[in-house]
Each structure stands twice: as C-alpha cells, then as structure tokens.
Write a structure and sequence with these properties.
With about 280 residues, the protein is an alpha/beta fold. It is about 50% helix and about 15% strand. The protein has 13 helices and 9 strands. The strands form 2 sheets. The chain has a 7-stranded parallel beta sheet with strand order 1-2-3-4-5-6-7. It has a two-stranded antiparallel sheet with strand order 8-9. Strand 6, helix 10 and strand 7 form a beta-alpha-beta unit. The structure holds (3S)-citryl-Coenzyme A and magnesium ion (MG). The site of (3S)-citryl-Coenzyme A (Q5B) has 21 residues, from helix 8. The site of (3S)-citryl-Coenzyme A has 21 residues, from helix 8. It comes from Gilliamella bombicola. It is an enzyme of class 4 (lyase). Oligomer with a subunit composition of (alpha,beta,gamma)6. It catalyses: (3S)-citryl-CoA = oxaloacetate + acetyl-CoA; citrate = oxaloacetate + acetate.
C-alpha cells in the first residue's frame, strides 16, 4: 500500500528502497513490485521524480535491481555504500548497456550516490565529479557512524562529513542531501536539524515518513519578509544599473553582486515552494 499511495503526500521525489528496508528473502518480490509500480503513470502525471535505492553491486541483488529498474523507466538510481568514483563508473557502465538494450535514451537514467563510510566521505569530491549522470550526493548517517565507531548525538559527530559532502557537491555543481531523521514523532528535533542543514547550504534531506515532507518544505520556503526584502534588493539593483551606479545601498546596507544573486535565488525558491507558513 505504501508504494502505490505515496504520491498523495506531494513529495518532490519518491524513493523506493530495495536495500536495507527489504529482508533477504523478500528481495526478488520487492524488485518485481517496485518495477511494476514504476510503470504506473501517476508519478509523471504529478511531476514526482522516481528514485530507487538498489542494493550495492557487490551483493547478489544489485545488478538484478539495476536491470529491472532501468528497464522500468526509473528517473534516478541511488547507489548505497558509495566508497569511490570507481563504484559510480562501474554502475554507469551497466546503466549505459541496459539503456541501449531496452531502447532508452543513453544518459537518461540519472544517478545519486549515497556516502555511508569514512572512505566515501574522504573521496566525496572524486565521487561527486565521477559522472555527468549524477544529480546529487547524499550523506547516510547510520552506516557512516558505525564505520566511525560512534553514534547519533547532537550533530557534532556528523559535522566533518556534512561539510565534506556539501563542499564536494558544490565543487561538482550538483545537489547535496542530508541524512534521514529517524524519530518520526520528534518534530522539534527534526526542525532543529533542518535549520542547521539549511544554514550550511544543503539542498534537502532524505525523509522516511510522510509527516516529514510538509515540515521540510515549509522550513525551506523563504519567509514573506525574506521575499519582500529580496524583491527590494533586485529593484534597487536594477535602478542602480539604470543610473550606472557602481555601489548601491538599501537602508544603509551595501548591495553587491553576491547579495543580488542570493536575492534572485530567494525569489526563485518562493516560486517553487511558496512562502513559509507559521506553524
Ligand atoms: C519510520 C516508520 C517505521 C514509522 O512508521 P509509523 O507506523 O509510525 O508511520 P505513520 O506515520 O504512523 O504512518 C502513517 C501513514 O504513512 C504511511 N507511511 C509511513 N512511512 C511511509 C513511507 N516511508 N512511505 C510511504 N508511506 C509511508 C503509513 O503506511 C501510513 O499510511 P496509512 O496506513 O494509509 O495511514 C515508517 O515511516 C517507515 O517504515 N519508513 C520507511 C523507513 C525506510 O525507508 N528505511 C530505509 C531508509 S533509512 C536507511 O536505510 C539508513 C541509511 O542507509 C539511510 C540513507 O541511505 O540515507 C543510513 O545508513 O543512514
Ligand atoms: Mg545505510
């Protein structure tokens, strides 16, 4: 039921999991079910991106998963446990072959790399730059923290990895996605974490429960005051340009190129997400 109804929660993207949420004895049936679900027209109709987290290619399931989901037209394949650029090169060689075999446009299947180990974090830049198919990289905290011999706490334990993954994504010009927040009943803790990752510059977060979707969307939506200020900045910049002024000020604050660029970004974000609701 979770598979076929998930579009009603209006996510930007739906991720079907064939890896750790599926027990070994259910791997084959889950793969079949996900492949059938991908064929439903509902995702395209609602403009929702489909993602499948396949099993790693060094397991007995990874390649079977990939064969099934690329043929079924998935938008994005998420590779778990990505440790190096070679992992992505291996994946993309298979994807290109499968696309040719099934008549899909070569290059149309996009990729996302989940970084879940110290090695992955250290190699984040080369992973992020490893393929033009990559739309983003994601940090996966639970496996990463096991590798680091620690556990989830106040965020200090993730600080280096969050910064490293984010910088790698920016160097490569792709998106960065933060970790899942596992206590789905703790809205306050979730929003605190969202506020931190938004401030760092993350594009979003992997979610595990529909109740987290609206909370995340709302937290990322700019406030009415931010949109109003951004519009004033853009207007002042345009006026400055008309008058041929080098330096412009708005209410005593200097407005230069990065401030104008940020203001345009806020206006663009508001077009997609609307304005933040006070809750
Ligand atoms: C957390 C919980 C058990 C809570 O259950 P609860 O029962 O309290 O949920 P309720 O809120 O009561 O459900 C209300 C209604 O929503 C429906 N509903 C719930 N969840 C839904 C959903 N996900 N999709 C669609 N629908 C959903 C539900 O069916 C019900 O529908 P209905 O009956 O019609 O009212 C449940 O959400 C859940 O199983 N989540 C998915 C967990 C998952 O994906 N794990 C794998 C990825 S992490 C990982 O692997 C670690 C990682 O690898 C990460 C990385 O790679 O990033 C690393 O290393 O860090
Ligand atoms: Mg994991």
């Amino acid at each position: 039921a979770m598979l076929s109804t998930s579009f009603v929660y209006k996510p930007d993207s739906i991720m079907f999991d064939l890896e750790d949420a599926v027990s070994i004895k259910e791997k084959d049936s889950a793969r079949l079910l996900v492949a059938q679900t991908l064929l439903l027209p509902v995702y395209k109709e609602h403009g929702i991106e489909t993602v499948v987290r396949i099993n790693a290619l060094n397991t007995p399931f990874g390649l079977k998963d990939l064969e099934a989901v690329v043929r079924a037209g998935v938008d994005v394949v998420r590779l778990p446990m990505t440790n190096s650029a070679e992992d992505i090169h291996e994946l993309e060689a298979h994807v290109a072959r499968i696309e040719k075999e099934c008549g899909r446009e070569v290059g149309s299947t996009k990729l996302m790399a989940a970084i879940e180990s110290a090695q992955g974090v250290v190699n984040a830049v080369s992973i992020a730059q490893s393929s033009p198919r990559l739309i983003g990289i994601a940090l996966a905290a639970f496996d990463y923290l096991v590798d680091m011999q620690t556990e989830r706490g106040d965020g200090t334990e993730l600080f280096y990895a969050r910064c490293a993954v984010l910088h790698a994504a920016r160097v490569a010009g792709i998106d960065a996605f933060d970790v899942v927040y596992s206590n789905v009943n703790d809205d306050e803790g979730f929003l605190k974490e969202v506020s931190l990752i938004k401030k760092l510059g993350y594009n979003g977060k992997s979610l595990i429960n529909p109740r987290q979707i609206e909370l995340l969307h709302n937290a990322y939506a700019p406030t009415a005051a931010e949109v109003e200020n951004a519009q004033k900045v853009v207007e002042a910049a345009e006026e400055g340009e008309r008058k041929g002024l080098g330096v412009i000020s708005l209410n005593g604050k200097m407005i230069d190129a990065p401030i104008i660029a940020r203001a345009r970004k806020v206006i663009e974000l508001a077009k997609y997400s609307g304005v933040r609701k006070e809750i």
